[in-house]
Amino acid sequence: MSGNSGTIELKLDAPQYLFSTPAGHRLARSILRPQLPYDPHDPQLEGICKAVDGTNIMVLTPTGSGKTGYLTIYMLLMISLAANPELVAPSTKKVLQNPVMVFPTNGVEKEMELEFKSHGLKALAINANIVSAAQLCGEDLWVTAQVDVLMLCLSPE
């Protein structure tokens, strides 16, 4: 882990492996397919491979067309690469630890938490209502978020 940057760096001396290639897409699909109940759609795979290579992406698609899949399969791929750096030698991919996702309204972050958990990702939704309910039960969600969560799903409401 590098300093306080919140990333894990996978380093080997050589040019960086690129996922934004036909071979990279095949490798990503072979890593992801056993972890998912579906085969990733080609646009999802293309987008996450660009993201893994460090290119920012913006996805504009209709409701129910797989936007959540972009986040889910990106995280599953990055976790697999961090756990198995030999999959792509050499690798210099940076894996964010505890990424934060901010959703525009209450409720969406809870739905996303459940979706991520259904794929084995440790997620936690936090908004004012959830924090208040947890406090009534004696739980400090910010402590929970520090020790047992991979992804934070937040709402400003």
Can you give a write-up of this model?
This protein has helices spanning 22-32, 42-52, 67-83, 108-118, 128-136, 141-147, and strands at 7-9, 94-96, 100-102, 123-126, 151-154. The strands form 2 sheets. It has a 3-stranded parallel sheet. Strands 1-2 form a two-stranded antiparallel sheet. Helices cover 42% and strands 11% of the residues. The chain has 157 residues and is α/β, with parallel strands linked by helices. It folds into 2 domains: 1-96, no CATH class; 98-157, no CATH class. Mean pLDDT is 83; it is low at 1-14. α2 (42-52) packs across α3.
Largest sheet descriptor: 3 strands, parallel
Shape: globular
Overall tally of domains: 2
Helix and strand sequence:
EHHHEEHEHHE
Q: Could you tell me the mean pLDDT?
A: 83
Decide which structural class fits the backbone.
alpha/beta
Radius of gyration: 17 Å
InterPro entries: P-loop_NTPase (IPR027417)
Protein name: DEAD/DEAH box helicase domain-containing protein
Organism: Piloderma croceum (strain F 1598)
List the helices and strands and how they pair.
Layout: E1 7-9, H1 22-32, H2 42-52, H3 67-83, E2 94-96, E3 100-102, H4 108-118, E4 123-126, H5 128-136, H6 141-147, E5 151-154
Parallel strand pairs: 3-5, 4-5
Antiparallel strand pairs: 1-2
Helix pairs in contact: 2-3
